[in-house]
Design brief:
The structure is a homopentamer.
Chain A: H1 15-25, E1 32-36, H2 39-42, H3 61-69, E2 74-77, H4 79-85, E3 93-97, H5 120-130, E4 133-141, H6 148-164, E5 168-173, H7 186-199, E6 203-206, E7 210-211, E8 214-215, H8 221-226, E9 231-235, H9 242-254, E10 260-263, H10 265-268, H11 272-288, H12 292-301
Parallel strand pairs in A: 1-2, 1-10, 2-3, 3-4, 4-5, 5-6, 6-9, 9-10
Antiparallel strand pairs in A: 7-8
């Protein structure tokens, strides 16, 4: 039986590869734990060096050490970074993020425009040459930016080309620009989810909805419903308390019907072993239906990878 | 005999396919009932979730359920959405809308620019791979925008390429921008119709003309005449009373000489069975010369599809 | 003998076709009567519907009826319009206008940018598929616009490609933009003529020169001399009295040394039979060296086509 | 022996053609007399019609008559103009100027952007089809313009492509824009010379350096040194007294170490025979090491071409 | 053993060439002494002519004389300049800088946009035709500029294409624009280093970090760590005292963990023999682990090349 998540733009000869990428990346659960590692461009060095960040996080290899030893769905980062460490981290499942911008220009001053760096065909060629396990590609769209048209176009092409090659397509959809008043508005986030669906994305990474500055998992339901067959990933955001993080993650999935998460700082801003345990805890909740208690146990005591 | 609506840019080897697409989509009437489903980008989630909208409308599959069971000419939406549901809705006649923008930037602030997401060749390849029944492509032009030049160019190419492949080409032509004072002005709408004709469109979706804020079907005649052999489709607009909607539709066709309609909210903002009956009623008026009374009867009691 | 108007960028194997297009379109006179029909985009519906315009002019087919029955050099309009009526009007000699813009944005507000819709290669393919008699292509350049660079580039390519295929290339050159004070200045118009020559055009359509708001045919001589081997066509402009129009046309040719005219409104804003007679009168003056009296006689009594 | 001016980006199979173009155009002297005829776009009709300009200069053929009968290195103009007269002027050595803009927008209002009209490959094809003697291509860069990036890119490609085909590449480098205070500053002109060298040009046409509004040939030395193996051509500028012009030219070469000149108005704004004698005088100083006295003699009495 | 710096995007058949380019350019040390010679565009003639600059520096050949006789890793300059002198300087190891802009527009007025002049494929073809020893390509990115998106894209492609051909890729990353307050901020520079790593660069040339306007080599460590396997090259900057320069260079490497330097003015703004000795001294510190004393000795007394 062809499962519901096989999109019709995957050609027959790539169905096997697409389904394998989907199954392996979601551990058969249909849910994706995306380890987000594109911040060295998006946030420059702010996430990797500072008062509360362990020194080892400043070394880009830290991300690869985590990704190679922890339970993750995919490790999402730029192709150049994958290229520099890939030979030594062949076991990591990669998702290549194909656009990125820095945070030097404030959103309040100029509308964001994050252009695609490389073609999907470049990623496919790279995968073939390097033998690395590349499962998909990613791209950020900023609806509401005056450059929205260019990003919508690039995203639509990227999804089609990814599917044509049997790769997963994950979109980050963040409404921005001077006409976006509240980027945590649940209705706006549901709109962003629908955009991803119309672009054909397999998963969409969204902001977490707030009302009066507070998260409530039920607020997610408008978006997860509007996303249809596109799985909603909640943004991990800046580092917060572990127990709170894992509890929210559990609620996002079981109350809000999200289908995963994209987490960076809450994992990598820790010493290696702790980071691995945190990733494993997140994975357990996301993919293995673990309870929050079970996840906290993993965080405390560790767990064997892919056990 | 080659009918008058076969444009000269359809090459000989595609004449059969073009005429078949035209005949099937218009039920042999030359008139098109276009079920418009591109609003998840154009209006974000505003049309699908809210106080007076049934909850099921928030699920994108609602559109496919309607499209697969109701009488329609074509279901117009983005390729990504078609791709996600197409395997389960193979009977639907699709028209792929190739550009879309969100409504986050007010028209009063910046002139609209809705760029083409994918090439016609991508649609053709998709149709071949998926086996779906894709009858045509659509595109919106905003004359009066400072980006008008780019949209005119994309539209002209899109029509030529659609015809080269035997596909229908439908244009949405909506004058916008700070120099457009009244987008319901009948003379302006007639101008928009002429633009579509010069671009070679088979059908053009237009705003409904008003004088003093009131619709009068006779106002349409300048536009339907100016459109020549290009069929004018009236925009369905926001949801209104059913009887009024169907009466206006009847007048648009029989007094104003429109050749169809593009209706979204007036269909999908209803529970499934009612939505199907409403679509059938619209189809009956548009394609089968049904009277308003007959249409209201269908709306009340239903009718077998394609009966 | 190869006549002086065979440009050196027409390759040997296309010389025959180019000369045939030139000879037939100018009736052997070297002068071109261009029936301009691109205004449905350029002026929207303003030229086709209104108090003093016969109702039949609102139907685009009116243009084809005139073009097929009157004496004309070429009928210039957009490819999409040709495509919609071409099968029924195979005898018309067409010139495809490859760019157009609407008049919604005032020149005083934003500099004009009229982008090329289709490639010359598309026109050539269209001619082959349709069997229509396509003699050339046209393009408008607005020197002085901040987008002048893009239009100069497109025009230069268009001329080269037209010649490479044996097609005529006609440019409309209208200086515009906030630094152009008087677009009827004879010296500026002569500059526009020179631009067309440097772009390699066969004919250039120019504004009519005025001094103190009055036309004087001698004013044209600076431009017709500066144009060198490129023939100057005078713009027909808005509709005026027939006798005055024909007298000015005669003076433009015999005193100002223009090599033709581009006339739209003064022809099509009339009932069919009168429009045909007016076109014939213009053709007689332009191509057959008719006197104004003879032309007025044709206008009054008609004449057999191509007699 | 391969002379120093054979650049390394001329491929082996084009070395012969490149050296032949260089030798013939410089008369074996390494110095180039460029007859500049691109002003019909750059200055519209200002240089060709006016109180002190002979009437025959308004006919574009005047330029070809001069170029075909006078001693010149190359005649530089747009391809379209060459195409219209080339069949009758096969003996002229041409250099095709590949970008041009009009003078309608003041430099003080908007930074200049002169885009490339045609590709070098188009010029090569044109040369092959027409059999004309095309020796090279030219392009203007305006450093300091906000569009500088686009012109630098086009210029770099143009030089590489010209050399790949064995053609000479001549750049006009004129710093412009609101941050350029004095375009006759010797240090700025030397900078422009260096830009040309880094772009790989064979010759660069520069403004003449002034200090306190006066030309002094020694001021040129910074630029001619900074240009390295790229030959500096001094701009001819607006028409001045012949004796003064020829004296300055002599000093530019023998004191300032320029390697030629680009002269338009000082030649063509004269009756034909005088224009030919002036071109011959300039050529004699530039290529044949004639003294100013000898040059004035040629201007007065004429000289046989290529004697 | 494949060393850690062989990136995974170098295809198998180019591994040998890439490693050879790396080994030869770093003298087996993994550190790069880059002789920067792109300033004739970047700074026009300011670095080459002036009160304290020897006259011979104004001749572009001065750079080639130094590069051919001194110990250097690579000589980085534009392709056009290499083309004009390459035949006479075949022994020089070149790195082709593929974008450049002038300094005419102040950074405070307009955000910088330095566009790529030529493709990597052009460089590869040039290397093949000319037989020159081209080891790599270079490109400058200005994060924080409103044109950042275009430069990030070009840089990403350039790195991939360079690696695909076995060439080194060196990026200059200089945050600029109105939102960049202090371009010598160590944290910002570390961010720039991370951007280079994500773009896949082999080396990145960075500004030198200051705190309170003073250089301290320890400040470099955040950046050299954040750069991971991408080697950090410190910008040479404007000419300073030799002893101070060499001492700072030593500290940058041994305290700050830089992996080389990019030096222009501190070398070429000297008479030839002294420039060669200065380059040798820099090379000795960078590649051969020479002490500052040893380097000063080389500067004073010279040393045989590659001894």
């Amino acid at each position: 039986m062809i499962p519901f998540w096989l999109p019709a733009d995957v050609p027959k000869e790539r169905e096997g590869r697409f389904l394998e990428n989907f199954e392996k990346s979601t551990g058969g659960s249909g849910r994706l734990m995306l380890f987000a590692g594109d911040q060295k461009v998006e946030h420059l060095n702010d996430d990797f060096f500072g008062p509360d960040i362990p020194e080892e996080d400043n070394d880009p290899e830290h991300l690869f050490r985590i990704a190679s030893r922890a339970d993750i769905g995919v490790f999402a980062t730029q192709l150049g970074l994958v290229a520099r460490y890939g030979r030594d981290y062949k076991s990591v499942p990669y998702l290549v993020k194909l656009n990125s911008k820095t945070n030097l220009i404030p959103y309040s001053e100029k509308d964001p425009w994050s252009q695609q760096w490389l073609e999907v065909a470049d990623v496919v060629r790279f995968a073939r040459h390097s033998g690395l396990d590349i499962r998909g590609v990613g791209y950020t769209v900023y609806p509401g930016s005056e450059h929205e048209h260019a990003m919508l176009k690039e995203a639509a092409r990227l999804v089609e080309e990814a599917h044509a090659h049997g790769l997963l397509a994950v979109l980050w959809i963040y409404p921005k620009g001077k006409y976006v008043e509240d980027e945590h508005d649940p209705h706006l986030i549901a709109g962003a989810a629908g955009v991803a669906t119309c672009l054909g994305a397999d998963f969409v990474k969204l902001k977490v909805p707030y009302v009066n500055g507070r998260f409530d998992p039920a607020l997610l339901r408008e978006a997860t419903k509007a996303a249809g067959r596109t799985g909603v990933l909640c943004e991990g955001g800046s580092r917060i308390d572990e127990a709170e993080f894992l509890a929210q993650l559990h609620e996002q999935i079981h109350i809000g019907h999200s289908r995963g998460n994209g987490t960076g700082r809450n994992i990598h801003q820790r010493p290696l072993e702790e980071a691995i345990r945190m990733a494993n805890a997140i994975y357990a909740v996301t993919v293995r239906n673990a309870s929050v208690e079970k996840a906290l146990e993993i965080l405390a005591n560790g767990s064997t990878r892919n056990q």
